Amino acid sequence: MRLAFITGLASDSLRSDEAAFLRASRPAGIILFARNCVAPEQIRALVGDALNAIGSADALVLIDQEGGRVRRLQPPIWRDLPAASAYAGLYATDPQAAVAAARLAARLTAEDLSALAINTNCAPVLDVPAEGAHQIIGDRAYGRNWQQVAALGRAVAQGYMDGAVLPVIKHIPGHGRANADSHLELPNVATPSAELEASDFAPFRLLRDLPAAMTAHVVYSAIDATSPASTSVLVTREIIRGKIGFEGFLMSDDLCMKALNGPMRDRAQAVIQAGSDAALHCSGNLAEMQAVAAGVPALQGAGLRRFDRCLDVLKVTCPFDRAEAERVLAGVLELPTHSA
Length: 340
What we know:
It is a single chain. The chain is α/β, with parallel strands linked by helices. The chain is built from 13 helices and 13 strands. The longest helix is centred in the N-terminal third of the chain and has 21 residues, at 95-115. It is globular. The model has no long low-confidence stretch (mean pLDDT 96).
């Protein structure tokens, strides 16, 4: 039995109290941040120790390695990766080249992550930024046109899967119109639902076949004026599972974000009751981790089947021309849109 949550860890090595916690709770996975990543051998040791404590190699090991300003593995130790906006800039002049470059860069990233025993990347971002929205998404987006976002997002997701790394599309059903940074406060989007369906939700609908997604801590007042998507039964059932048609493994965004309030156990219960398959907790605070574990059920039924489909992605690696991928990525890194 494993519990329906994914947890962060405090530092670059597994503490004995964390090991005991992982052994007792058996989470669906762990997530790594810069504080956990010092050197390749150290990361492999940390992941190995965590999986040994969980008692299974069948666990997700997540990281945010989008590129640009959201990457936990930084140069000079690890590869430089451009923000999504660099591919958006290339797409403006050569869509085919942009799609190919995005896929190859993701394939290279998958190889880098696999070498560190990391099997899941919380990317691509499918949010479509709106004029006047908060810049928390900004250059993390693949453009301001949903068709372009979907095309590049599909390429990135496929590149990860070609390298046996699970992509997690985010932030479903869309964070692009948010008027605030949900790390710091709760955004409220008042856009009519028909407009949201025609733009913000559209990339997620086109990529609804992908295996995993992360929810948004954003209120869509035209659908549910009282709860953010992550804790809203209405948004999860009617939009994410309904009109978007996403059938994959659904995890919440980080429960520690200030968009949410209340005790950590209540936050964990709320995202599960809304319809997420797993709660995500990132801070590495052990007392909070224990509260989250107490607030979630065992991963079972449909959620477990969706989780198992995620594990299937990790079993098959497709060959690729590494030298060509390196050459293409170097070209993207030289673009003015990357430098900006």
